[in-house]
Design goal:
InterPro entries: AAA+_ATPase, ABC_transporter-like_ATP-bd, ABC_transporter-like_CS, MacB-like_ATP-bd, P-loop_NTPase. Pfam families: ABC_tran. Keywords: ATP-binding, Nucleotide-binding, Transport. This is ABC transporter domain-containing protein. Helix content is about 30%, strand content about 25%. It is an alpha/beta fold and about 240 residues long. It has a single domain, classed as Rossmann fold (3-Layer(aba) Sandwich). A 6-stranded mixed sheet has the order 6-7-8-3-9-10. Helix 4 runs parallel beside helix 6 and helix 6 runs parallel beside helix 7. The protein starts with a helix and ends in a 12-residue tail after the last strand. About 35% of the residues are buried. The structure holds adenosine-5'-triphosphate.
Length: about 240
């Protein structure tokens, strides 16, 4: 892997606070780390440690107060609004704890929404098979289980084949078995399409399936470890 690929995503001295005066809260206090291309990176940390704030800044939906993010050599802060919109559209996929599907569109149509404006979209039928949703493709979201709905939302995020897939507690609303199914799917997506994955989670066990584990505390990186002994999602237990 080249030096550029090792620093595919580079977070440099990132700072972010909210509020002003007495209610001012410094949430990110100078955060530094790099994520390599294709890596499955897990962000862990107690509630309030700034994980979602960081993900939103990487996702280009919030700004840092200082510091910067480089993605594949492009500095996010230097991007014009137009370039930033393009970047979000083409290079980023987002999976949330809540699925946010469009209720009157079926499974296939919900996924097609994510392909809109992409010039590099994956084949939808092939993706529906990978997601285990092919037989369900004409169902509406309210005819699906929570796990199936999360599969659709993962499909919508990856159909444009983004360089980076950001996942914020993707299994937070799911039971044990369904969570494992979703983690297996994310693992498969990472291996099959090679997207760099950054996943925020409270579940410590998930670190065992990651290539890279970053632990945040009080707005800074406390541990930054490469996992040389990773296990498959199938073998995770918690
Ligand atoms: N838009 C905002 N305005 C004011 N404060 C905010 C805003 N967004 C986040 N915060 C505060 O920043 C801190 C960090 O929030 P953040 O959601 O990033 O933490 P987290 O590590 O993701 O927590 P959790 O694990 O509970 O989701 C919290 O104290 C939160 O109240």
């Amino acid at each position: 892997m080249s030096e550029e690929e090792k620093k595919f995503l580079e977070i440099v001295d990132l700072k972010k606070g909210f509020g002003s005066g007495q209610t001012r809260q410094e949430v990110l206090r100078g955060m530094n780390f790099s994520v390599a291309k294709g890596e499955f990176c897990v962000l862990l940390g107690p509630s309030g440690s700034g994980k979602s704030t960081l993900l939103n800044i990487i996702g280009g939906i919030d700004n840092a107060d200082s510091g910067y993010i480089n993605i594949n050599g492009d500095k996010l802060e230097d991007m014009s609004e137009k370039k930033l919109t393009q970047y979000r559209r083409k290079h980023l996929g987002y999976v949330f704890q809540m699925y946010n599907l469009i209720g009157n569109l079926n499974v296939k149509e919900n996924i097609e929404v994510g392909a809109y404006l992409s010039d590099n979209a994956l084949d939808i039928d092939d993706l529906l098979h990978t997601l285990g949703l092919y037989e369900h493709r004409y169902k509406l979201p309210n005819q699906l289980s929570g796990g199936q709905q999360q599969r659709v939302s993962i499909g919508r995020a990856i159909v444009k084949n983004p360089d980076i897939l950001l996942c914020d507690e993707p299994t937070g609303a799911l039971d044990y078995n369904t969570s494992k199914e979703i983690l297996k799917l994310i693992e498969e997506v990472n291996q099959k399409y090679g997207n760099t994955i950054i996943m925020v989670t409270h579940n410590e066990a998930i670190k065992n399936m990651a290539d890279h584990v970053i632990k945040l505390r009080d707005g800074a990186v406390r541990h930054n470890d490469i996992n040389t002994n990773k296990v498959s999602a199938e073998d995770l237990e918690w």
